[in-house]
Specification:
Number of helices: 14
Largest sheet: none
Shape: globular
Order of helices and strands: HHHHHHHHHHHHHH
Number of domains: 1
Distance between the termini: 7 Å
Length: 320
Amino acid sequence: MMLRKAPAASGSTMIAALALGAPSLSPLARQRAMFAFLCFVWGTTWLAMKVGIATVPPGLFAGTRWTVAGLALLGWRRAQGHHMGVPRRLIPRLLAASVLLVAINQVIQLYGLRYVPAGLATVISAALTPISLLGFGVLAGQERFNARQGAALALGIGGILVLFGPKALAGTLGWREVAGAGGVIIGTLSYSAGSIIARPMMRTVPPAEVAAMTNLVGGGMLLIGSLLFEPGSLAAASGHWGWPAFGAWLYLLLPGSLGATLIYFLLVRDWGASRTGTYAFISPVIGVVLAMLLFGEHVGIADVMGMGLMLGAAGLVLRR
């Protein structure tokens, strides 16, 4: 799969370059730096989500975050003088992508995360993301399956199982855990399908605007649905969440939604969904390393082997 050069003067590329502090990088180096940023941020979001939904209803927690992210991106583009609007023929695709990427993905996945350990959620999401992105991409005619991708998927899944499998499945899972795992699976599949649906829009609409509109539409759906139907959401709308939940919300909003999500759209446009999806092989490794450095968690030989397999899988797919 060949890289396509991103427009150097696009507003979305400028956001990514400013976020990374490297506007002078070549297009290829910038893409690699953006991918590294994406892997780091999304390697730490599971913990932030777990902290937030411990005290805030999941629909409200996600709905406010994505709505604010969409408004902020649209406001930034308007301040830059960009033409706003999506062609009428793309509105159905935009609505479908918004529902899949944000509304369905977030509410089902966050409710699922209430009932499963973060480690098991990481296993499911990391293993399923690249597979589902590749599968949906092949079905949509955006990707071609080849032997190198198959070898990378096998290596990555093997690494995930070695790294997280024994720890995540050490206990006996009850029906709540099984239902929660099902929610994480549905959310991951929804996000992958939405990514494939969104990619063709970026041939005519800048990725920053696609990200802004999907965030705003999907987040608005979540927020309205939460306020109308989610237990406890009206009381939580006062914003008295406590500093841990509010800090997690800010982290998910700023580097998570405004930074990493925009970068994800840029890379999906330029690299394709399945190649970009290899972040799922690297992000869990980052989470393990940070836990070791910050919290003194022990890393054994099996952990090192698992991380090596996952990084090898990502390298196999990412090389030109």
